[in-house]
From TrEMBL:
This is Mutator family transposase. One of its GO terms (biological process) is DNA transposition. GO terms for molecular function: DNA binding; transposase activity. Required for the transposition of the insertion element. It comes from Athalassotoga saccharophila. Signal peptide: none annotated. Keywords: DNA recombination, DNA-binding, Plasmid, Transposable element, Transposition. InterPro entries: Transposase_mutator. It comes from the Bacteria. Belongs to the transposase mutator family.
Length: 140
């Protein structure tokens, strides 16, 4: 049985060129940055779902709660320590599920997130955030 490629050869070459990857360390650093970006987008999607409107779409806003910036958080994954920005809401009601409050170890979800990258679109992550098969500790 042939393995399904996550990215085409052209996409891989473009990724290598765009990220100036020259060695294994470059690959690891690029994956770490990609991982952080996807986690942050998933957190944004969670907040958007809770608030009920997209960023800057004030016409659809049906709540007195709103976005209130972001806070930095260092988490530990199989890529080592990674800094992410977690969105906040004004009423402090937001309880993220992808990376819970006070959670630091997020090992185990990297492979599932990385597998989403080839078709990484904001809408894809927003539509699939609650369908990722997470370990029991991280279940949504």
């Amino acid at each position: 049985m042939e393995k399904k490629r996550l990215m085409s050869k052209d996409e891989i070459r473009k990724f290598i060129k765009d990220n100036d990857i020259k060695d294994i360390a470059g690959i690891e650093e690029s994956l770490k940055r990609m991982f952080s970006s996807v986690i942050e987008e998933m957190l944004e999607a969670e907040l958007e779902d809770q608030l009920g409107y997209t960023k800057y779409d004030y016409k659809s806003k049906m709540t007195d709660n709103s976005r209130n910036g972001k806070s930095k958080k260092t988490v530990m994954s199989k890529y080592g320590e990674t800094e992410i920005e977690v969105p906040r809401d004004r009423n402090s009601d937001f309880e993220p599920q992808v990376v819970k409050k006070r959670q630091r170890d997020i090992s185990g979800i990297e492979d599932r997130i990385i597998s989403m990258y080839p078709t990484f679109r904001t809408s894809l992550i927003r539509n699939n955030i609650f369908h990722i098969q997470l370990p029991k500790v991280l279940s949504l």
